[in-house]
Amino acid sequence: MTTEQRLEQLREQAWDKGIVAGRGVDVTGGPIPRRSGYYGQPVVKPPVWTSEIPIYFFIGGFAGMAAVIAFAGLIFHEIDLARTAMSLATIGAVLSPILLTIDLGRPRLFLNMLRVFKYKSPMSVGAWIVFAFGACVIPGLIALELGTRYSFGGGTDQFLKIFAHLLVIGSAFWGVLLATYTGVLLGVTAIPAWFLHRVLLPIHFGSAGLGSATALLELLGHRVAPLSALGFLAAAIETALWIWLEIDKHGAADRALHRGLPGWLIRGSEFLSGPLALILRLTNLVPLAAIAFLLGAFISRFGWIEAGKVCGRDPEAVFASQG
Amino acid sequence: MAEDFRAVTARRAKCGETMIGEGTQSTNQRRHNYVQENVEVGFFTDPTVCIGCKACEVACKEWNEVPDDGFTWIGNSYDNTGRLGASTWRHVLFLEQDCQKGNQITGLMGLSDAQSEDPFRWIFLSDVCKHCQEAGCLEACPTGSIVRTEVGSVFVQNDVCNGCGYCVVSCPFGVIDRRPQPLPDAGGAFKCTFCYDRQKSGLVPACAKVCPTESIVFGRLDDLRARASQRVEQLKQSGYEDAQLYDPQETSVRGIHAFFLILGEPEAYGLPPKPQVPTIYLKSAWTSALLTSIAALIAVLGAFLFFG
């Protein structure tokens, strides 16, 4: 604390020596903020994506896996289930490109996505997956509905059946990729919280998609044993992934996943779609389990994007991941 | 005063002497045919001669007609630019460190007997897009908007970019960004163009052209690398023991076209110590995704087979 005496002392010193040494010229004690990196400025750029992207991850996830369930339903003669599942897939196939287009900085140039194919860019591969999925799912649903509702007689029915089968097989193929590539999309970036978990992310997004598709079909009234089994499986995998994420910590590099808003979002979502959904299923409260899983799968996508934003703003995370 | 200075400069120029750097002999002031001859070019940025005038920032903004990015006061030393971004393609860092700069005599203007306990150095460094040999943004771009030019630089074709934002998270140096509304050309991704338009006409990039101390040097990449290692040796002999080149050639980025001489560690400059191009993660991520896909197909078919 500076007193009057101290000011007098400084004046004396100035008179005597012509220069004053004191805390005022002490750099280390000066007001330079000691923050890591360059004044705490981010080293990498946080994602610019807004809420459309996590919503798309959720919708694309359940739509893709619904196509797989439709394929299995068709093979095992559960035609009603297959039709509902294909409707879900179609909703996703229509909404996904719309959401992706809205998120673009220049939406009217969205077709430029299909200008080239670059296998090294998960965004390019993903755009083609979304396109191929839509191209299979939408005519697939039409063929399936026409084939079950109407009888045209002769070879037309047979042709429609084969056509529908082929398109549903295509939908299932592109569907699994649609549900899992989003994990690659986040994993192949410069954001430490994402690339450090590039193996976990596709598994998580895939199982979240599978569980969501199952949950939606169950809520729509398809309470069949295979779906129940898949519901158990997805909830069990989510529980395991939660444990994996808690064990596989990388210190400062991925601390965004474990603290603050994204930490709570991810923990909360894993609790909902992991242990909670599992317990609710075991106690036979299937609709509640389905809702818990859906909520968890939805929130989780927001959690991961938010973690990328927090991690991208944190210079220490980048240094820690490269140390 | 100004007239005196000009007179001295003119006299020296007449005698073939130059004030600083290589003057009129510098590659910064010469016309060239690098684009036509497909010569790899680069920037070598040397903070030990930078005076922090920000002429490079201004020249870049003016030539490229880059809009302002907000007149915010952040006050980190003399830096109010903050960091590179969609509308900041050159950024002069003002680094304050409490350590010695070369053989600098610190302390109370030599009046005190003390070998000072308060060493202090102020470093200026003009940061820019690194134009990586393996560029994360270029690999990530799904529209083919980002391309490699004849001179080895990385160029964003503004009319092709649809603003997906994937390059933003793929740049290991955090350079490229999407320009927000309501700025002109908003929505697209922007970064340093290496003044490709000027280079095509045989001109030197605007920032290098205006740099008064040749802290930014433009030229052939091989020449610059040789010159830079010479400069490091020279500085080390003059007591700058922590002088080193920042040109990550041993990581997956495989070298950068705009490289830097730095004093101390790269972290202090906000430069990643071991930058990696994200494509090295492709293999493990896709393996996981494909195995998950196969597992999901098997699980669904199995569930219907055993429980159906």
Task: Describe this protein with a few key phrases.
heterodimer; A: 323 residues; mainly alpha; 71% helix; B: 308 residues; alpha+beta; 4-stranded mixed beta sheet; two-stranded antiparallel sheet; globular
Query: Which class of secondary structure composition applies to the elements of chain A?
Result: mainly alpha
The rounded Rg of chain B comes to: 24 Å
Distance between the termini of chain B: 95 Å
Helix content of chain A: over 70%
Annotation, overall tally of beta strands of chain B:
10
Look at the structure and give the mean pLDDT of chain B.
Answer: 89
- Supply the helix-strand structural class of chain B: alpha+beta
- The SSE string of chain A, one letter per element, is HHHHHHHHHHH
The 3D shape of chain B can be described as globular
Number of helices of chain B: 9
Shape of chain A: elongated
Task: Characterize the structure shown.
The complex is a heterodimer of chains A (323) and B (308). With 323 residues, chain A is mostly helical. Chain A contains 11 helices and no strands. Chain A has helices at 4-17, 52-75, 79-103, 122-149, 155-187, 192-195, 200-219, 225-247, 260-282, 286-312, 315-322. Chain A starts with a helix and ends with a helix. Residues 25-30 of chain A have low confidence and may be disordered. The N and C termini of chain B lie far apart (95 Å). The interface between A and B is large, with 91 and 83 residues.
